[in-house]
Design a protein that fits this description.
heterodimer, A: two-stranded antiparallel sheet, two-stranded antiparallel ribbon, 5 strands, B: Translation Initiation Factor IF3, 2 domains, 4-stranded mixed beta sheet, 64% helix
Chain lengths: 80, 221
């Protein structure tokens, strides 16, 4: 699987990407389609756009931390 | 767009994506051929733990999946010990998800205490079923078996708490754990506890940044 780092990507491009995926951002956090802060699936914490990861499997947006990534691997497999 | 082309974009500065590129990325994401990450290191660290021999051992004896997951987090904490920011961040996340008892279980693994605890159990092994039960019991009831000393604790209070836990629960093995700035506090409690706990043998796991006391109950003849 190809991995693209979001570290050097402009904020504008990240927001465009989120919008194409049906999400939004206030410039700091990932927002859902209704404008609410979108929460990490496993930790239930808001996700900052400068620390988000977007993983395949019905498009999963997570906070970039080992616990959330491990939980993702347990649920969806580790083939990346 | 290839990884090489993307890398070229990075060297030019902040990367801007065109609408065409975004469409292509989303197609690959939907086809499970692409993931957007922050840095590869996070993924690599996680994968390392999944391939470790120590984890394979625990997988054979810990059946509760959620408990095993917390054990994996403990191994990951150990791996992050040289990177304080990441270590603190993961500790915060474990606390958010599993509260203080989950963090204590993860630290129990991180500090190598589960390792040594299993060694003590193996010395007295009677059956695999009892062995599994003992491991699950200590993980399920970590606060009844282990006291994690904090840097702000005072030796007098630690001795008092230790005696309270031992008198309330009579654990067959009681562990007093001090790491980093709490190492000396545990060391300062050692002699006095030895005097009070005459029904227990003391085994010490010591290092420059840790002092862990294992009090093992001796059966009276």
């Amino acid at each position: 699987m190809e991995l693209i780092s979001l570290k050097q990507v402009s904020e504008n491009s990240k927001i465009l990407l989120l919008s194409k995926l049906g999400y939004n951002s206030d410039g700091e956090f990932v927002l859902d389609s209704e404008g609410n802060k979108f929460l990490d699936r496993y930790l239930e914490i808001p996700i900052k756009i400068n620390n988000m990861v977007i993983l395949p499997g019905s498009t999963i947006i997570l906070d970039n931390n080992e616990l959330s990534i491990m939980k993702y691997m347990e649920e969806f497999g580790d083939d990346f | 767009m290839t990884s090489e082309e993307i890398a070229k974009g990075i060297t030019k500065g902040v990367l801007e994506w065109s609408a065409e590129m975004l469409t292509s990325f989303i197609q690959k994401l939907n086809d499970k051929k692409l993931a957007f990450i922050q840095e590869k290191k996070t993924i690599e660290i996680v994968k390392e733990q999944y391939n470790s021999g120590e984890l394979k051992f625990y997988q054979a004896y810990i059946e509760d999946k959620e408990m095993l997951f917390v054990v994996k987090l403990g191994l990951t904490l150990r791996r992050l010990e040289d990177d304080k920011d990441r270590l603190n961040n993961l500790q915060d996340k474990i606390f958010t998800k599993y509260k203080v008892s989950g963090l204590h279980i993860a630290q129990f693994v991180q500090n190598g205490i589960l390792n040594r605890y299993i060694g003590i159990l193996i010395d007295k092994l009677t059956s695999i079923e009892d062995f599994k039960r003992d491991i699950e019991n200590i993980l399920d009831n970590i606060e009844k078996h282990v006291l994690f000393v904090k840097s702000i604790d005072k030796p007098r209070d630690i001795i008092k708490q230790t005696l309270t836990i031992i008198h309330s629960h009579s654990p067959s093995i009681f562990i007093l754990s001090g790491v980093f700035s709490a190492t000396k506090i545990v060391s300062d409690c050692k002699e006095e506890l030895k005097t009070f706990l005459e029904d227990y043998d003391l085994e010490i796991m010591s290092g420059s940044d840790k002092e862990i006391l294992f009090f093992k109950r001796v059966l009276k003849k």
